């Protein structure tokens, strides 16, 4: 799933993939470890918050 982010003042589009489930609250809210390739050629990791299967928020984006 492609999302655009501002990282260090630059607009970067990252194509995110789910890697591993981190936490499942049992109420439809699931935290996933994400990885993705950015339009700048760098690889990134982050935490994705999914609600009922839909990506709602991406947190803690870092270079891989």
Account of the 3D structure:
This protein has no helices and 5 strands. The chain has about 60 residues and is mainly beta. It has one domain (about 1-64). The protein has a 5-stranded antiparallel beta sheet with strand order 1-2-3-4-5, with no helix packed on it. A hairpin with a 2-residue loop joins strand 1 (about 1-5) and strand 2. The radius of gyration is 12 Å and the shape is elongated. The model has no long low-confidence stretch (mean pLDDT about 95).
**What's the number of structural domains?**
1
**Globular, elongated, flat, extended or rod-shaped: what is the shape?**
elongated
Helix content: under 10%
The helix count comes to 0
* Biggest β-sheet description: 5 strands, antiparallel
The spatial strand order of the largest sheet comes to: 1-2-3-4-5
> What is the beta-strand fraction?
over 45%
Structural class: mainly beta
Based on DSSP secondary structure assignment, what is the total number of beta strands?
Answer: 5
Low-confidence stretches: none
**Rounded radius of gyration (Å):** 12 Å
> Distance between termini?
18 Å
Mean of pLDDT: 95
| Element pattern in H and E | EEEEE
Please give a quick description of this structure.
This protein is mostly beta strands and 64 residues long. It has strands at 2-7, 10-24, 29-38, 43-51, 54-63.
Summary tags:
64 residues; mainly beta; five-stranded antiparallel β-sheet; elongated
In terms of topology, how is this protein built?
Layout: E1 2-7, E2 10-24, E3 29-38, E4 43-51, E5 54-63
Antiparallel strand pairs: 1-2, 2-3, 3-4, 4-5
